[in-house]
Amino acid sequence: MIKEEIFAINEYVPGKSIEDIARAYGLDPDSIIKLGSNENPLGPSPMAVEALIEHAPKVSIYPSADANELVNALSGYTGFPAGNIAASGPGMDGLIDGLMRLIITRGDEVIIPTPTFSYYEIAARANGAVPVFVKRDEDYAVDVEALLDAVSSRTKVIFLCSPNNPSGNLVPEADVRVIAESTRGLVFVDEAYVEFADKSLAHLVNDYDNIIVGRTFSKAFGLAGLRIGYGIMPQWLKSEYMRAATPFNVSRAAIAAGVAALSDVGHLEKSIELARGGREYLKAHIPFEVYNSQANFVMVNVALLKAKDVCDGLLEKGIIVRDCSSFRDAGESLIRVTVGTRGQNERVVEGFGVV
Ligand SMILES: Cc1ncc(COP(=O)(O)O)c(C=O)c1O
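Above: inputs. Below: predicted complex with pyridoxal-5'-phosphate.
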């Protein structure tokens, strides 16, 4: 019954939950800090919570099929016309899957610079594509020359994550331009963490008809549990994308909360400030090599130790961080730490100090 390509998929490894760790280590859930999934330590905007409560009695009614209220609000936030924006659910993952469904014919290739976010590979394989992996260089920059060598007539999508998960670095604009010009396929620029960064690449959508930018409400907007994403794309692609998109894929509650979150500029600014200050603190104080980051997390290299051992040691102290060993080509000594509140950051630094 199951398609052959599904057997090649290694199931997505999510960050560990507070409930799992409380049970496994016999800890009080309130004493555990979760810095493994790049969520917002300030939680959602209170305005988003209010909107959820206000709209709760209306959830017996379907939302708009295309989430146009959210798309219009996103037009104001991004500066792009609504004709360039599609809202997606569940999260940006839903956008990636919808795109694969739209353009992949069995045997097409997608290029993935590794290590990076693992859902690209899952979505590609599940839709019949063959992933072609191009390892990033020792500084975790995309190896543009090797990537261009990997482009073929079967290349349908090239995934570029900026800032990259887990390394935290941006893809230079000049590299994206060269890559977009090298292929008749699409270049998917994942900007899940862009609010925390100095630079966005979204304006390139105006210059190229094969660049699409993925965004999410899961990180800076603190709405990971509502699963809202969106894409900024050329108008021709939005028309085709909407033809095959699942109707009503952003829920009524999610639309209301998303619109409210976009209007709460103060909460967004506070979240960004906390991440920017906190990542500098973590870089300065974690007693291992910590890479520069443009995101709300930092990547730590614990060589000569094993990431798994260090993470297990931190778990015993009720600190959840992300062992990157499950990321393809990440090796066994990288750990990703989400920037938390000041108190959480101090605890994680202390934890690393005694492993
Ligand atoms: C780089 C990157 N892209 C996409 C996503 C998925 O975002 P969403 O929660 O909107 O599905 C994540 C989530 O961790 C991510 O790290």
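Residues 46-263 form a domain with the Aspartate Aminotransferase; domain 2 fold (CATH 3.40.640.10).
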